[in-house]
Fold:
Amino acid sequence: MNNSHTSWKRLIFLGAVSCAVASVSSHVVSLVLGLSPPTRNEHTFGGNQDTSGEIVALGSSLMAFGIDWARLAKTTDISVNTRTCGAGSPAELEFLNAGAPTETNTLVFISVFEMAEGMLSESRPIEVPFSVTLSDLGTTRPSWTLTKTLLWSYPLQVMRSPFPTLGRSWEVMVRLRDLMRSVRAKATVTSEDAPIALNAGANSHTDTLKSWDKGRLLRNIKQLRERGVSESENFVGPKFLALQRIFTKSQDAKLRAIVVMPVSPAYKSAFVDATMASTFASMLRIFESANPLVIIIRLDLAPELQSDKYFWDLVHLNFEGQQLATSTLLEELGSKSENQ
Amino acid sequence: MIFTSLEFLVFFAIILLVRLGIKNVNSEKWFLLIASWLFYMSWNAPFVLLLIAVSTSDYFLGKRLHDESNLSMRKFLMASSLFIDLGAIGFFKYANFLSGTWRQTIELAGIRSDPVFMEIILPVGVSFFTFQSLSYTFDIYRKRMSPAASWRDYNLFVAFFPQLIAGPILKAIDFLPQLLERRRPTAYMFECGLAVFLLGAVKKSVLSDQIAPQIDLVFAAPLQFDALTLLVALVAFSAQIFLDFSGYSDMAIGCACMMGFTFMDNFRMPYSSLSITEFWRRWHISLSTWLRDYVYISFGGNRRGTCRTHINIMATMLLGGLWHGASWNFVLWGAIHGLALVVHKLWTSFRKPASSPTPRFAVRTFFASILTLSIVILAWIPFRCMTLGDSYQYFLRLANWEMDGVRSIPIQLVAIVSIVIVTHLLWKKDVVWYRSIPNSGIVVRATVYSSLLALIVIFGVSKAAPFIYFQF
Structure:
């Protein structure tokens, strides 16, 4: 094979041009579709907005959508500083708390969804130092697949500087569908499974999971499986270790409560079997008995939230669900604090 | 290490860079051999011993075969090679299938027996490397080639990492001569390799992996979906398996080309075929030529009369089906293709093929294309379903057009199927794309490569699903 059109110099030039064009395309697509880079979100509710708050609440989008922080701050007359990151698990939450004033109390929000070891937050390589990941992998020795995924998330994050859409095809496809729908309807329509903006407290979702057709439900469950949610390898890996550390350092961080956010019954029937539920419960019991000052609030067991009508997708509460969860949280905080 | 993963890209970049620094041809071959073994070990480390054992036995048997002049002894040596290679594949792949079939058979005779199930892990790529190794002893037995220059060269032929896991199934007669001299790619060759690698990555990561979850969903429980969903999923699976497997082959060919080696093409627009015979000249070419050369011809080919020819075709396709997996589903798939090939052979012996571009010819071509495609697509039902029962139910729901069930037809499924159909309709089926693009002007090439790269970074699925053919 030989050809006069190609020389090594020309090939290098072609490669550079192709990379540059692909990079520009990736940035343009990211901009047009509104794909923001994974970042932590911080909001303060109640009190003086400039202060850091009397309570720091750490969590993921489940917390951001699940609790009406403005109402909570108003009812309790306490200022709350929320810190969230998409799909944030204890692994990321451990580092989200960095920089919080030592006099503030901390609430950590977890759920059985984020505790799934295979479900990785895109913020992980940004929030969790590589050395911590290495040491956690060494301690927990998870499967080779999970180890590879965790380790490769760091170079992938670096490569996202020139190519912001790299490895985010799921979000691209969903946003693209949204865009097509909105162009067609000439109005903004919320996607069936859109990646979400974490504006804590601002839950405008009134649609319910109950109204989904079976096909859509099955597709979304399958999609979650593809993204790493599964029944296996949970409560034994780096996320578990991070939660353990959060409990161990609870006195330094003034950890007051661990709140377990609910997931929809549809999610539970797909991913949470009896063994997994009991492992999760016993894990929490062990932590609780070792740290009696930390209260554990199980919103996931609240009977009033056990319906798909309070969720707008498989794991996020809708507006109605948020109001119910906020009321329950207020009650639980009040009663458990009194008991202590 | 899947070709579309970051780890493979790093691995391959290291191979290319280190190879540049190696001046000695022998050291370079050792380096490639060790790299190939490491590549295999990334899947399942202990099975590299099986790979080495199969290669080593065939290397020495081949040497003896070449030196031996006694026909009985030659037959014995050839049989030994068959026994070892087929024994390896038989144990790891078919032991449970055979014991299950045996149990069912004796139960039909009224004899009760306890089920025996062995926990056997299937070594990845075992069907590919055993067949590849067998081609060597077959060709030496038929005196078509001389033995490999060294044990190292022979092991490198069997284990060469771009083709190790899922082909193309190389023939020793094509590849071993490439190891006799130092291979260095020209810039043109490198560009061809890069182009076909990018195309393969788009097929796999952007198209196939994008629709795989939806198709898996339907085939996991077909009874809960309506007939339209089943039909769309079936057509989508036809697209997926083509994209997945030809994507893998493209990337394998691309990697080899970037290192200065040449592999045979494995796919040439198979869904454009006008007959089932043509389909098998365009689909998984390395397997179909292997089956033709070493099974069909060994059975006697077409030299023993019409009836025997048809039996040979059927037997070859049944074995070809079984090669894909230890299940009656694959046997059924092979039987459908075998039967279609026999019918087509009978048809062509009665009718002369029309060759002039008349309107009648165009109509015939159209119907031939539709008929071929329909057979191929319907035959994917047993190929993809888990059991024969599932296949039957799937077919029945489709045939009865049962609409009581879940409808799940996401837009990307339709879009990607349309892309495959349109490409097959528009593309000249005999043009080898990756060799023609590097001949174009620089603007065309820059546009094509930028587009492929942009597609990968925008739509490429990060969690690469294993290639479908890895399970075989």
